[in-house]
Amino acid sequence: MTADEIRGTAQGTAPVPLSVLDLVTVGAGRTATDALRTSVALSRLAESRGFHRYWVAEHHSMPGVASSSPAVILAHLAAHTDRIRLGSGGVMLPNHAPLVIAEQFGTLEAMAPGRIDLGLGRAPGTDGATAAALRRTDRLNEGADDFPEQLAELTRFLDDDFPDGHRYRRIHAVPGPIQSTSPGGVQSPHRPPIWLLGSSGFSARLAGVLGLPFAFAHHFSAQNTVPALDLYRESFRPSEVLDAPYALIGVSALATDDEKEARRQVLAAALNMVRLRTGRPGLVPTPEEAEAYEFSPMEREFVDSWNSNVIHGTPDEVRTGLDDLQKRTGADELMITGNAHSGDVRLRSYELIAEAYGLPTA
Predict the structure, then answer these.
(1) Residue 1: pLDDT over 80
(2) What digits encode the pLDDT tens for the residues 95-141?
(3) Average pLDDT of the residues in 327-350
(4) C-beta separation of 332 from 6 below 8 A
(5) In terms of CB atoms within 10 Å, which of 239, 248, 328, 348 comes out highest?
(6) CA 54, CA 335: separation in Å to the nearest integer?
(7) Is the dihedral of CA 84, 85, 89, 94 positive or negative?
């Protein structure tokens, strides 16, 4: 694993590498199968237009988000792409045994050598009751508090380097390095690079201290972006992975052919968030349903606040918004998530953004 497997190269006139975060959203009247077909089409579009990486995020118990199994989805996308980096943005480490994650991502690395990223978060990616079912415990704080220990364990499974006397010394994640030490064994030189994800300062500081790349969830925690990135850079210590900080931020952005349509689309996505935040998660509503919905004053305030953090409009407006955000934060990479009811709208948005920056065509 080298820094070259982490750092991207800006394409066209983009100020930094552009990437894709896919929540595999399911719109009203659509199925999870429809959403996953959109993900395949979007991953192929992203590859053909020079986007650097394509990540999917772990969520649970949300009808409008079909990304509960990132490793399964990534295996499917690996079969339909050839070059683009694929990864988790992220896998929620406290929900899983570290050995299982090492095995899953070792398998993905064997499927797509040199193309797999392992992004890790410490939140549950769901509500407390669902998290308790996933972890088979009601002591939910334990998982978050133990995150550094779990991360160290996962790293040792990936590198197969538990010290002598450790209780896991004779346990090996396969596929993995143990295969190269077996008689006649040959093993890929690649190991999925670990990224730490966060929406506050905890993972920012930890990523810096460990010399790991860091991904910040600007798309839902914008007020913390600059402080978290500053903390990451201040805490950074050079490592075998990176000699200097590398931070990407997740950005909500939606481009349409005209500004009015962009406002319609993001209103529907915001209504979906209103329902999620008030304990009524469902499928992403249509723009027509959102236009007809009677928002309470409190809901309208939430929508205005939420959409102020979504860069939306014509391709030129979105490009300007992305450029301004990159300058303000100093992010080394922008990972764009474009949420809308229709898969066609999402695909068109990324195509328009690619055109706005003059990204290459394969």
Answers:
(1) no
(2) 999 999 999 999 999 999 999 999 999 876 566 676 677 776 666 66
(3) 97
(4) no
(5) 248
(6) 8
(7) positive
Per-residue tokens: 311:
């860069």
Q: 335 with 248: CB under 8 angstroms?
A: yes
Structure tokens at 225: 């972006």
CA angle 355, 359, 360 (to 5 degrees): 120
- The Cα–Cα gap between 333 and 21 comes to 12
Residue at token pair 């719109």: 27
Q: Are 127 and 96 in contact (CB under 8 A)?
A: no
Per the structure block, which two tokens stand in for 64?
Answer: 């409008």
Q: pTM of the entire structure?
A: 0.95
Structure confidence at residue 56 (pLDDT): 97
Distance CA 85, CA 104 (A): 16
* pLDDT tens by residue, 139-186: 666 555 789 999 999 999 999 999 999 999 999 999 999 887 777 766
Q: What is the 3-state secondary structure (H, E, C) of the chain?
A: CCHHHCCCCCCCCCCCCEEEEECCECECCCCHHHHHHHHHHHHHHHHHCCCCEEEECCCCCCCCECCCCHHHHHHHHHCCCCCCEEEEEEEEHHHCCHHHHHHHHHHHHHHCCCCEEEEEECCCCCCHHHHHHHHCCCCHHHHHHCHHHHHHHHHHHHHCCCCCCCCCCCCCCCCCCHHHHCCCCCCCCCCCCEEEEECCHHHHHHHHHHCCCEEECCCCCHHHHHHHHHHHHHHCCCCCCCCCCCEEEEEEEEECCCHHHHHHHHHHHHHHHHHHHCCCCCCECCHHHHHHCCCCHHHHHHHHHHHCCCEEECHHHHHHHHHHHHHHHCCCEEEEECCCCCHHHHHHHHHHHHHHCCCCCC
pLDDT at 186: 67
- The closest alpha carbon to 353, from 81, 85, 49, belongs to 49
Confidence at residue 144, expressed as pLDDT on a 0 to 100 scale: 58
CA proximity to 39, closest of 337, 319, 335:
337
